[in-house]
Amino acid sequence: MKNSDAKTSDEIVREAEAWWKTEIIDIHPGKIAMRGYPIEELIGAISFPQMIWLMVRGDLPTAEQSSLLEAALVAAVDHGPQAPSIAISRMAVTCGVELNNAMASAINVLAGIHGGAGQQCMELYADAARRMEQGATLEDAVEAALDAYIAENGKVIPGFGHRFHPIDPRSGKLLELVEAARAKGVVGGLYSRIGQQVEAILERRKGKRIPMNIDGATAVIYAELGFAPELGRGLFILSRSVGILAHAWEQSQQGGRIKGPMPKSIPYTYAGPARRAVPEVK
Question: What is the pLDDT of residue 1?
Fold first, then answer.
């Protein structure tokens, strides 16, 4: 390296300081600020949902926005030990790992099929909204968005229908809260209309009602509040982590060692070859 190309010590320090660039937190000895707000002023003044909004969005929500976000987070915290992620957290604890390891094991399976429907539904809603911006009617936009989604992903529509609940008891209440928020001018109601139109079109196409589930309803709320679809799964994980922690802790109190997915009295199904001799190796 030529001397003219050598960096000064000040240049090296500036380069190091710029390596991790963030608008989220400013931290110095004795000082912490989140998005510009001193942490000591936030503590005791805002709720956890408001903190989530601040960290992700960069500003503080109104009380009404925070309340709607909180409702969505509360609704999705748990769905019983039969949910794969919850079961994994409990099994992990019986293998001797700590709570944080059990939580990580559970969260790592929240992907496209288990835990991903909310984000996928937000993407479907966003596609319909874009088509409406381009001049399509609500019905035409949703029809086209559904067709595009099915062509790319198959016939299962995220956010509608439930393997366990004929009617999801959570979605109706959430949609009521969205409507109340719309009446107050907190949200516009576009994504609620899109979600209800999806339900109507699915019923017409299939000849039976495929009701909106928790993922479809929380997708409405997150979209109405202006969250990008890419944040949908992360918001769901923040919610479901509460249930994961609760189940992992309960299992640690109940005890048990190396619990599998089924009791030992229930066998699995073997479908391989019948018992056979190992051939002689020459």
Answer: 45
